[in-house]
Amino acid sequence: MKDEVLDAATHSLLLGYLFWVLGFLGVHRFYFGRPVSGVLYLLTLGGFGVAWLLDLFWLEYLHRHTPRHYVRGHTSYSLAWLLLVFLGIFGVHRAYMGRGRTGILFLLTGGVLLLGVIYDLCTLNQRISRDNIKQRYAMF
C-alpha cells in the first residue's frame, strides 16, 4: 500500500507547462517541489529570463523528479495550485483546503500583503501531503 501511494503521480506535467508561462516568477519551480530555486526565480525574474527559457527543456526532468514523498489523497495538488496561482490573494486555495478563517484573512488583506502568498508557494505541497496523510489515517 505504501509503495502504491508513493508511485502515484501527484503533479501534472501539463500544469507544469502552464505554470512555466508564469515561470519568470518561479511558479513552475514551486509547483514541482523546489522552493529554493522558486524564490531565486522570483527575486531574479527567472534568472533574468535566461534560466526561465532553459527550463522549457527541463520541465519533463522537473516533473519526473518531483519529490516522491508527496502523498495522493482527497486534496488535489493540481486544483490547490491552480487556486493559489490565480486566486491566491483572495485565499480561495486556503478555503478549498478547509482553512476558511485564514482564507478570509487573505481575502481581507490581499494575501496578507502578498507575503502569505509567497509563504504558501513555498509550503503548499507539504501541507497538502500532510492533510492527505491525516485524511487517510482518519478513515481507519
Kindly list the characteristics that best describe this protein:
single chain; 140 residues; disordered N terminus; mainly alpha
Total beta-strand segments: 0
Mean pLDDT: 91
In DSSP terms (H or I, runs of 4 or more residues), the helix count works out at 9
Q: Helical proportion?
A: over 70%
Output the helix-strand order.
HHHHHHHHH
Structure characterization notes:
With 140 residues, this protein is mainly alpha-helical. The chain has one domain (2-138). It contains nine helices and no strands. Helix 2 packs antiparallel against helix 5.
Itemize the secondary structure elements and their pairings.
Elements: H1 2-7, H2 13-21, H3 27-31, H4 35-48, H5 50-64, H6 77-87, H7 92-96, H8 100-113, H9 115-138
Short description:
The protein is mainly α and 140 residues long.
